[in-house]
Amino acid sequence: MTDPATTPPSLQVSGLAYAYPDGHQALFGVDLTVARGERVALLGPNGAGKTTLVLHLNGILTAGAGTVTVAGLPVAKAHLAEIRRRVGIVFQDPDDQLFMPSVREDVAFGPAAAGLRGPELEERVRRALERVGMAEFADRPPHHLSFGQRRRVAVATVLAMEPEILVLDEPSSNLDPASRRELADILRSLDVTVLMVTHDLPYALELCPRSVVLSGGVIAADGGTQELLCDEELMREHRLELPFGFDPRSVTVPAFPVG
Amino acid sequence: MGAGHAHKLYREGRSPVHALPPHCKIAAVFCFVLVVVSTPREAVWAFGAYAVLLAGVVAAARIPAGYVLRRLLIEIPFVAFAVLMPFIAEGPRVEVLGMSLSESGLWSAWNILAKGTLGVAASVLLASTTELRALLLGLQRLRMPSLLVQIASFMIRYGDVISDEMRRMRIARQSRGFEARGVRHWGVLASSAGALFIRSYERGERVHLAMVSRGYTGTMPVIDDVTASRTQWMYAAALPLTALAVCLTGWMLP
Amino acid sequence: MHVPDGFIDAPVSVATGVVAAGAVAVSLRGARRELDERTAPLAGLVAAFIFAVQMLNFPVAAGTSGHLLGGALAAILVGPYTGVLCVSVVLLMQSVLFADGGLTALGVNITDMALVTTVVAYALFRAIVKLAPHRRRTVTVASFVAALISVPAAAVAFTAIYALGGTADVAIGKVFAAMVGVHVLIGIGEAAITALTVGAVVAVRPDLVYGARGVTARPLEIRSSPLAPAAPGAVARAEGPVTEPAATTSGTSEPAGIPESAGAPELAGASGAPEPAAGPRRSVRPVWWAGLAAALLCAGVISFYASASPDGLEKVAHDKGIDQKAEDHAAKDSPLADYGVKDITDARLSGGLAGVIGVGATLAVGSGVFIVIRRRRATAESGRG
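The joint structure predicted for all components is written out below.
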């Protein structure tokens, strides 16, 4: 792990508050720091403000109060393009993410929007698709892929931009167990900072050493995933429930790295 | 339709017609239809010549004639219109099989039938030899405003997604024992339509989020483009130019 | 009503092509001003919606059914500019992909169905929303009237184009009477469906109806996290930026949408829209009057026309009937795939249909629809609590 003193953290959120234009306030002062290379799960009940928080990370929503910094660069209008290159968000529904007529064009969209052209672009697309094992599907229309394949292509569309931090919104939703495991393998093989929004607690435990709980628009807990999942009172308080028969104590996970 | 290169309208093939760049084909079909529309209706033989020309292209594209004929059914409503024309048009009348028909009405009917059919046949030929994606690239190449191309390509990408949603809503209605039988059920159907609109619009917003998240700023980066050589243009021009010759002859002859 | 090639002569086709191109160009600018960079995805999805909803089957009676044309609906839901764009793109794709509507007649079709329908519907909608009391029901009633008039308006426009460049030798009077007569009927169906659909959207997401957008912002509140006590400055900082929300998403929709239509009924409508249900059963009288007027107008046109030329009426009704029937069939399973191979053997509709629907059903439909609206509205509102 890189020394946090010399490299700025991949993500630093402080005092973030936000209300939607209709008056509904979703965030009430969020503080969160994610060091480079960390994999963090963002847990929380429905309506806790998870998606709202995610949309602040690349400046789609502008903070009502507080700041967001990505690898030392504050999220602000002036360098939005660079922020969006650094923060790769994989949305929950791959049909929303894959809007181009073919897989190749879709993966190329991000880098092309950043100005990449020609063989360099082709190379970037090929590499991103290879990392998710979808290289042979490059010329297929997204509509023809299975759900799991579409989710993987969605990850590739973001990887092609070589982001500083990969943000995944419910990556395991609607996946069958095999696709779920394949995606986990892919995510583990990536050498990027990952922030994973999920309801799938075993998945969080499997992939993320650290978890934070967002509840009622504030960070309610922050710590090792296993510790949090074992804290029954905390879990109950924030409507987090483990699947039937799953005991987080029985799982051996790598030690929680200092970050 | 969102199925990209495999929509049912498109017939895969390796003919010279399939191989032509899409913008050449679109331009050729458009010019051809324009020429057909400008031909005087009295030049009956000219329309025969156009039909032969099209049949030639169909053969070159190796598209089964039955397929094209079946697709022609789309114009049935206007055939009905044309058939009634002789009965309601003005002017001197002629007796045909005991019915009094308007002479100019007969001409009008012929005019609509001949030109309409040729137009539909040409469009069908275009759609069945050109991939959907290529059609969009062709339109883009022909300088259709890029925003319009984008809108069309989103419509095509999500046409199936939304039709699927509509189908699922219908199944959900039926599963709860609802069968729309008459006007009093319109309320339910319309609220489905309303819900479909909301879903479509919200999906549009989510798609937009996904786009800006990857650096979209209003213009689509040109990832693919199509080009045509002079020879390809000449091949494509063969159809409308021949048709033009026929048309001019039609005007010249009394 | 998709006009094929050869129905209108070449010069007028070209001229309408120019008109259509101009209209689309203006709409592109207008839509961009309203939606900014969201134009392409939103207009594209709305176009896909219009395309899909045209295949939604509305049963009328005795096995017949109709479907939405969508021009008025598009105008009311997404505004005239985006509306024109969406309907134009739908027409373009129908023409290029399905040969539904001639390539050279694209100008005629866009002018007629995208431009006239949308602009007339939107103008009427604006006028009514502006003049009538600002309530949610006003939006529904305005939608009804706007859609009702927009369809025959398109028929009038078509007749005008026909008068200029029609290739058939049929008296303009006959064409006018037939087109307008039949389209008044179609317009009633269109109006009912449009009003019900707009009503359904207003009930759930009033902010998505172009005519009823509103912004209500509350000051931000800061709650303290159990982990880190709130920074002292947080509360102070929270006041200002609320009025200037989302940079790109929600933000652009409101501020960008307003300049063009400043002071217009959108704002007025907006103030009315979020208002909680004010007694679901109040004052439907204007609606009834509108329905009655529509019915009378329709009956008048029909009887006038029927006495003038029964054949013609039968024909156009027949034509429209087959048209609708055929498209309904295409919608059965994979709507797009089967589009090309329409099963039109089931053409049992005859001209008599027009007569039956004409006077009797007009009143019945008109009243029935309002009863349905009223009941649905009542339940919807009580459901929302």
